[in-house]
Protein 1
Amino acid sequence: MRLFLLIKRVWNRVMSKLNHHQFKNIHKTAFVSYKATIDNPENLYMEEYTNIYSGSVIMNSKANFIMKKYSGAAIGLTVITGNHLSPIGMWRKFVTENIKEQLDKNHNADKDIIVGEDVWIGANVTLLSGVIIGRGAIIGAGSVVRSKVPPYAIVTGNPAKIMGFVFDPEQVIEHESKLYPEDERLPREILEKNYQKYFKKRLKNIAEYQKL
């Protein structure tokens, strides 16, 4: 059984490497499973040591999906960079790509999705148009992320809500001093503001949500 799993793992890696040539904007150390569906490979940007595993669907026909270094997603990631247009007097089923081009020439209905550095995304997570996930965040399995996630936040649910933070501000400062150049580290005032706004002032709401 272990030999079978090892062979299967090696086979998946080999097939994914062979599939690598179609991606012009991903780092050589990035991994995209050949079992993942990517609508537009040219709009996929992946930095060093990032990964997208099998069962993932990246719907990025007109906007970009960007994953920064050392971030990864478990199986079943769904990324949707576009929004459905609802023209007056038309059934949504019949809004073709040509009609979308005419009504939305600047592609304002399609927005980039950006995953910051060192983010972990659990299994079967959905990221919706325009979402930005801050550095170091953790997205719980099955979450549907509809809005911006601050750095180092822990979120879960549908819609995804902040349940806590990986580190407090002092720990983040220590953590980043060992990993990032000084000019790339997050400012203390931003860290403290986020920690107060999304965690300290919401402890009661978080506790009530966790009981559901």
Protein 2
Amino acid sequence: MRLSEKLLFLFTFSVVITGVVISHVNLDYYQAVFTREDYFLEWATVVALTLGMVTCLYRIKILSKFRELPFLLGLGFMSFMFLFGLGEEISWGQRIFGWQTNEWFCTYNTQCETNFHNLKFGELKINKLFFGLILGICIAFYFLILPFLFRKFEKVKSFVNSWAIPIPKYHHIAAYLLLFILAQTIPGHKKGEILEFGGCWIFYIMILSPLNREHFSRKSFVR
């Protein structure tokens, strides 16, 4: 593990553990201050998402002459996903520039903000369905099942490498499992903020040095 990776893990879990301790010592402070919007935890999450997007765009730039279209499209899709997460965190600029929410979002958004994860249609909460259940299933598959399939089946490995899908190493998987366990110990209703923060940083750390790192580096090419 590189020194930079160790330092990023140290930062991530220092914040996570601090949040867990605060939640047990003073739950009101944890829920009202530590995890409030436009505070440290949220902006630190924005930084991780921004770094992830920039990393993918940079890889597109340096690998465009060496990799085929599917690989570049995979990087492009991942950079878009980081951008989408970033946009949702800052309500697509509303929290920075302070514009008024339009009528449609104010009607269907539980916080009257310009974002999708707080939309509610009747009893259907988008955040609970898509950003909770479905995203949780995808994360579980990605960190727990896909690495096994990657190591076991050559066709899966070929597909993953062709489409620029970074694969977690064992310590990335262990880090995410530890994050999940720590988050579950938090009382109250704001476990998700810690999971979101830690998950974004662990994913960013993972894409910097995935199991299939050589496919994302120019050094692997003979020129």
Protein 3
Amino acid sequence: MNSYRPEEWGASPEQPSTIRPPYLMGTGVVTGEDTDTRPLAPPHSHPDAMLAWCYRGTVWVQLQESMWRLAPGQGVWIPAHTPHTARHERDSTGCYTYIGDSSLITPIEDVTQVLVPRAVQEMLLHLGINDMPTDLRVRIQSVLIEMLQHPSAEAADGWGEVPLPADERVRPLVQAVLADPGDHRSANELFLAHGLHERTVLRVFQRDVGMTFTRWRTGVRMTLAARLIVDGTPIGAAAHRCGYATTSAFSAAFKERFGLTPRQHVARVQADSAHQLYWR
């Protein structure tokens, strides 16, 4: 997914606003079939704040220096004029809600995660396909904005930000890891395959993302692992897919990352009311 160069991010075009007065917001819906796992569009921005949220499956939202994995009910606020792109996994549905700055209760100034309540999800989709009097639509939109900006509980374990190094020298390496987190080659074998020196990679990752390559790669693997096991993938199969030779090594890495064993994580998520409300 990290296939765009710095100059492409720098040249990101700004698309025109889709919000027409007196309306306060608008929502676009994109399915995996619409994109076939390709990025929706090259990096671009919008003049309005955007809430990218997942209705079904998995949606990846990418900024120049990070990306976010969204499961159902999870969203990310993106400030106006911020370049981004997105990708949907197969059979996934992603939604993009645009809100003008003047309609927000609190300005959106930073990229932040948010839970989108089930009732809000359904009403946003309802507004997109049903006619109603203008004054009623505006009143509903006003309430939805208030609900979206109302402080909510933190998101479920296993989601969040994956930082991306900006240095062009490691771009092919980063792309390879994101495309196949379970690649069984060692770090040094990957460096050699991409013509990189270990010291170069260490300096780039410490400078750009504040961690070693090994720790970053483990984070990418754990992001995949958390979704796999909650989706019902057996722990042994998830371990293999994430590049671990044994289940015990995988479980130890998972517990270090999340503070729970894989089985404890699944039990906690399944017992969470948020999981029951959001997961499809």
